[in-house]
Amino acid sequence: MKAKLMRIGLYGASSSHSLHFLETLNASAAFPGIRITAIHGPDDPTLAENLAERFGLQLAQDQEELFKQVDALAITMRQGSEHEPIVRACLLLGLPLFVDKPFAGSVQAAEQLIDLAERRHALVCGGSSLPLLLQQQHVADTLRRASHLVIAFSASERSPYGGYAFHGAHASELCVSLLGANWHHVHAFRHGDGIVAQISYDTRQAVIINSPNENQLRIAYSGPEGAGIIIPEMSYEPLAAMEFGKMLKTSQLPRPLSYYLQSMQLTEEILNKLKTHR
Question: Does the pTM of the predicted model rise above 0.90?
């Protein structure tokens, strides 16, 4: 008997992540039996129509139509504030979810959504692909053992997709994934068009350097095993879809849901420190 197809809905079209999901799950068929079958793209209806035609998808005209056609959902809308009503509706329907970064538009909203997800034992993954990139290239464990990290990557307060939080989420998630969430002090200041943040732990420290045009991730580290600089190949495109597919196959969360809240808390603390530093 032929296995039932798990139908994935794609909510969002304008982000390149939408295309990455389609190329991984449909064009490359990374997980037989899991396929994106429908799209709703209120952020770019024309592009959504083009993607639907290119990949043979149903083009849903609204959220309700999309939900009726699928068994799980990938949310690739760029602004975190746009995620909140979609995530809530999916959790109430019991749909497994991928939620792009940033998880929500505020820490308070993230707390409420994660509380709901935990109470409903929901399958949820998402966030930045950069921690996955470090795992794929076998450097994450070395960085986790470091006592000092310097993380340099792109972010801009002028981003039209929610300001600093849109790309700043990458560095925050890297910091939390590598050093944890038990920091005790954050200091942040502007340097030209960029932002520098110092995150202090009991025995370790991270410095985040964000610049609008720094699209290559660079991480310098030092610790008991020595020091070095890691410049990973930026081949992150399939990683989020691969993690989503694995979660759907195994029904196992790739990480605790608290991770998404902790990363947003770090981003918010950096922004709050910028307000007080003149």
Answer: yes
